[in-house]
From TrEMBL:
GO terms for molecular function: ATP binding. Keywords: ATP-binding, Nucleotide-binding. This is ATP-binding protein. Residues 16-159 form the Orc1-like AAA ATPase domain. InterPro entries: AAA_16 (IPR041664), P-loop_NTPase (IPR027417). Pfam families: AAA_16. Coiled coil: none annotated. It comes from Adlercreutzia shanghongiae. The keyword Transport does not apply. The keyword ATP-binding applies.
Length: 366
């Protein structure tokens, strides 16, 4: 028996709850001819909504469908890293497929990584990538580039996006899947040099339905060799509240609290959910609130006066501020993924447990 829940950032879960539409659309785009609009997709979501897990899942899907994938974080060295990973993964793919073994020296030449530099002129990144893509296309392989935590302040990110646009425009088999926090994505899209990205497909990673959470939770428990009482399962689903990271935390902690027993009972989920809430507070909620300004926090504090969703006029009144102030801060908080619109001009907290945690955070902060 092994605990199969994965309560760590960036881990592909044993069972991916929900997200079928997104996985389906991107998979379809990979199977389609170059130019399918979903071949350029941006995943947007708050911490813990499953961006990295989805990037990694799609990379695995791509590799089963005649693509190689390279996965980078938005850090200096990004462009060189993409070239090197492409060569390495391309060679590994062919070795598996054809049973050919490349000597490590050959890997570079097969994928055009080594060039004769005429008179000291180094080819630029675009022409090196063109050579690599030519080598891949000889083997009918496409290239999926995944970029996590997009950061428009990194020059190489902008360069990557521009060169990608040219390569994709040439009809090459190349796809770009990016992920970021809402404010990272909105500032990337605001950058004029990559305005074509505004036409990329955007997927907002919203809460997962209770039915999908329940199915994934149960499947993970069963695969780990245990079972769960029906009432305990309902309690777990309620504590998870549609949030992917909580699914893993509640699952992991409840499983551990069950010890050697074969069935996860109510008391184990109670204990598990309470430990999970502590993890959630420190690893998601505090980290998110730490990035906000004082005025953002005052806005959120004013929202506590309503039991449910708030309206702009209520916040304006509570803060004694203009409606322009309120709409500025509402937009900022929407972009951060901290609040979400609930219809009819109303908005509410978007992260689970943020409402009960907020007073505690503000008290410790003042
Ligand atoms: N659809 C999902 N179903 C179940 N668990 C998920 C799902 N998406 C992510 N997770 C889990 O949630 C946690 C956070 O996911 P991660 O991809 O790191 O989030 P993000 O990159 O958005 O911060 C990880 O433990 C991951 O295994
Ligand atoms: Mg991540």
């Amino acid at each position: 028996m092994k605990n199969l829940f994965t309560p760590n950032f960036g881990q592909i879960p044993y069972c991916l709850a929900g997200r079928e539409d997104i996985v389906g659309d991107i998979t379809h785009a990979l199977d389609n001819t170059p130019g399918d609009p979903n071949q350029t997709t941006i995943l947007v979501g708050a911490r813990g909504t499953g961006k990295t897990a989805l990037l990694r899942t799609m990379a695995a899907v791509a590799e089963q469908r005649g693509w190689i994938s390279v996965n980078v974080a938005c850090l200096p060295g990004l462009l060189e890293d993409i070239l090197q990973q492409t060569a390495r993964n391309g060679a590994a793919f062919l070795e598996k497929k054809d049973g050919v073994r490349f000597k490590s020296i050959n890997i570079a030449s097969v994928f055009g990584i080594e060039w004769e530099y005429a008179r000291g002129i180094e080819p630029n990144w675009r022409s090196r990538m063109t050579d690599v893509l030519d080598a891949l296309s000889e083997h009918d392989l496409g290239l999926l580039i995944t970029v996590d935590e997009v950061d428009p302040s990194l020059d190489e990110m902008i360069q990557l996006a521009s060169v990608y646009q040219l390569l994709a425009g040439d009809g090459r088999k190349i796809a770009l899947l990016m992920a970021g926090l809402p404010h990272q994505v909105s500032s990337l899209l605001a950058n004029k040099s990559v305005s074509f990205l505004r036409r990329a497909a955007q997927c907002h990673l919203e809460r997962i339905s209770d039915a999908d959470v329940e199915a994934a939770f149960l499947a993970t428990v069963k695969a780990s060799g245990k079972d769960i009482d029906a009432s305990a399962l309902q309690e777990a689903v309620a504590a998870i509240d549609g949030f992917p990271y909580m699914l893993q935390l509640v699952g992991y902690r409840s499983w551990q609290a069950t010890g050697e027993a074969l069935k996860i009972a109510d008391h184990a989920v109670e204990e598990g959910a309470s430990l999970a809430e502590t993890d959630m507070r420190t690893r998601v909620l505090k980290a998110t609130l730490d990035e906000l300004s004082d005025a953002d926090l005052l806005f959120l504090q004013a929202m506590l006066q309503q039991e449910g969703a708030s309206e702009a006029s209520q916040i304006a009144q509570a803060l004694g501020k203009s409606s322009a102030h309120v709409s500025t801060y509402r937009r900022r908080l929407l972009e951060q993924g901290v609040i979400a619109e609930t219809g009819r001009g109303r908005f509410d907290f978007a992260l689970p447990m943020l409402r009960p945690y907020l007073p505690e955070y503000i008290a410790s902060y003042l």
